[in-house]
Amino acid sequence: MALDYQPKIVGFLCNWCSYAGADMAGTSRLTYPPNIRIIRVPCSGRVDATLVTKCFQQGADAVLVAGCHPGECHYSEGNYHARRRFTVLRELLSFLGIEKDRLRLEWVSAAEGKKFSQLVSEFSAEIAHLGPRKDNGKAAGGSL
Ligand code: FES
């Protein structure tokens, strides 16, 4: 595998916690790999199978979903829905021929800029180690 391989990661961050955590990382001048494309969503519970499979269809190497810690969702139970959905989505990805580890769910609060920075660095390294998708985007109905 080429050493310059940079995975394309889509990050769905909940507006109230994780997006603010990413912002905190930025204002604290913490660095993380630039290969994550951040999409702000109202709540982690908003991220459904359509959004995730669309990312893979469009050529993403991995998807990160980050939301408020359990018990802190601004919509009460959105992150619990996200957690339940996450388990099913990983199985769906496996069915589509995409490694489950390419989808990750994490809790990041507005004060956890350092955690966000470390999470993106770690996830990016893991996906780089996995390499490009073996299905070349075909399993999810798209192309790279
Ligand atoms: S508002 Fe952040 S996970 Fe629901």
Ordered list of secondary-structure elements with their pairings:
Layout: E1 9-14, H1 18-27, E2 36-41, H2 49-57, E3 62-67, H3 78-95, E4 103-107, H4 113-130
Helix pairs in contact: 1-4
FE2/S2 (inorganic) cluster is lined by residues 14, 16-17, 43-45, 67-68, 73-75, 78-79.
Describe the overall structure.
The longest helix has 18 residues, at about 80-95. This protein has a 4-stranded parallel beta sheet with strand order 2-1-3-4, sandwiched between helices. The chain has helices at about 20-25, 50-55, 80-95, 115-130, and strands spanning about 10-15, 35-40, 60-65, 105. With about 140 residues, it is an alpha/beta fold. α1 (about 20-25) links the parallel β1 (about 10-15) and β2 (about 35-40). α1 packs across α4. It has a single domain (about 10-130), classed as Rossmann fold. The chain has 4 helices and 4 strands. Bound molecules: FE2/S2 (inorganic) cluster. FE2/S2 (inorganic) cluster binds near residues 43, 45, 67, 68 and 79.
